[in-house]
Write a structure and sequence with these properties.
The protein has 14 helices and 16 strands. The chain is α+β, with helices and mostly antiparallel strands. Helix 2 packs parallel to helix 12 and helix 7 packs antiparallel against helix 8. The protein starts with a strand and ends in a 20-residue tail after the last helix.
Length: 396
């Protein structure tokens, strides 16, 4: 039976950072199922699935205080905004499910067909063509990230709460015999324990496409040219806190454009890339905005890294309006300027006459498609721009 724990705060938490705090608090204890901030009185309401630790209230107060301080010191900045032509005003997910264009397989995992699948493919094709105009070299990477790359990249340090391990079964005759025996007996409930005992974690399901690109350059002391540009699409997985329809998925498709090289050229390239999300959104008649943003870091690192990223303007997000709920938006693309972080982490370009910088622009394909349906409706052939569906697919 779930119970609530109310933690009173010394002062109201900054409204602009409430969702950030709620998402961070759930990692404070394995018993916290969800967290909700209230303004009057200022407090945090925790929904618990087990008895709270004796110091949980103190830890909640400390984390909230540190995050509140960082939110007051540095605010997000609006970079651009645009008003589209969409008139649709209801959540398209129920109808997408009813028409069979979207099917749920497990929490956070869906399959797609019909026009929704077609729009995703059209988006990816469009973004690939844009990347090629930026002279990007196309790549195809595995859907997993080796453990050494996850460690080099600092992913497990900064985002352990989002990691989805990949594993292989030890080639043990005893394990295979035990599996076979239990399956013949129909004891399917025994299988997870056998697999857990025999599995050896060797990496992560790739949380972002570009990480395999940086790994592919590991130890390369010299780049073939001063500016190396690439693009790739792939299926990514993250252990998200609150899976929410097509807005927050555990498994999703991403198209990225990434670049590494001489700092001045990377800075110029990232400036050109930064204009792309708003330009595409305007072309597609979408309503939304671009603002500075931060990644989701683990617990106390959130407060520190938030100030760092926002102060230096290292991350920008394209947020698109979901008109079926007032004030609700969805992050559909992000630009990330890494400075020399990944070049140092993967020892890239040691013999170059400069310290390499890098950046990437990532588009969430399902989120883009969902935003298009949310703003323009179910009839793709009536949208205010032309969508070229793959051969053999119709708009109905």
């Amino acid at each position: 039976m779930a119970e609530e724990l109310v933690v009173e705060l010394a002062q109201p938490f900054p409204e602009a950072c409430v969702r950030e705090l709620e998402g961070t608090l759930v990692h404070l204890s394995p018993h916290i199922r969800s967290a909700k901030c209230t303004a009057d009185p200022p407090s945090v309401v925790l929904c618990l699935g087990g008895p709270p630790e004796s110091d949980l209230k103190r830890r909640v107060e400390r984390l909230a205080s540190r995050m509140a301080e960082s939110c007051r010191r540095v605010e997000k900045k609006l970079i651009d905004s645009f008003q589209g032509s969409g008139v649709f005003n209801r959540n398209p997910l129920p109808e997408l499910l009813d028409r069979g264009w979207v099917r749920s397989h497990s929490p956070g995992a869906y399959s797609y067909s019909g026009p929704f699948f077609g729009v995703i493919e059209w988006l990816d094709s469009t973004l690939l063509n844009v990347a090629l105009q930026f002279q990007a070299q196309p790549f195809e990477f595995p859907s997993t990230l080796p453990l050494d790359a996850a460690l080099d990249a600092g992913y497990l340090l900064n985002h352990p709460h989002q990691a989805v391990p990949s594993a292989k079964l030890a080639r043990s005759p005893e394990t295979f015999q035990a599996l076979s025996r239990q399956l013949r007996l129909g004891n399917h409930h025994a299988v997870p324990e056998i697999l857990a005992q025999a599995a050896a974690v060797d990496g992560l399901q790739a949380p972002a496409v570009c990480l395999n690109f940086w790994r592919s350059l590991k130890g390369k002391r010299k780049l073939p040219k001063n500016l190396l540009v690439g693009t790739a699409a792939g299926i990514c997985q993250r252990n998200e806190d609150e899976l929410e329809g097509l807005e927050r998925l555990g498994q999703f498709r991403m198209r990225e454009i990434f670049v590494i090289g001489e700092p001045g050229q990377v800075a110029g390239f990232s400036k050109r890339l930064s204009r792309l999300p708003a330009k595409l959104a305007r072309r597609w008649g979408l309503t939304g905005f671009v603002e500075t943003a931060t990644d989701s870091f683990y617990l106390d690192r959130q407060a520190v890294m938030r100030i760092y990223q926002l102060n230096l303007g290292l991350k920008q997000e394209l947020r698109l309006q979901l008109p079926f709920e007032e004030g609700r938006t969805l992050a559909a693309a992000s630009l990330n300027f890494h400075r020399d972080y990944f070049a140092q982490a993967f020892a890239i370009g040691a013999d170059m006459p400069f310290r390499c910088h890098s950046c990437c622009l990532a588009f969430g394909l399902e989120r883009l498609a969902f935003s298009l349906f949310a703003q323009h409706g179910m009839e793709v052939d009536r949208w205010p721009f032309r969508v070229s569906l793959p051969h053999g697919l119709s708009f109905s």
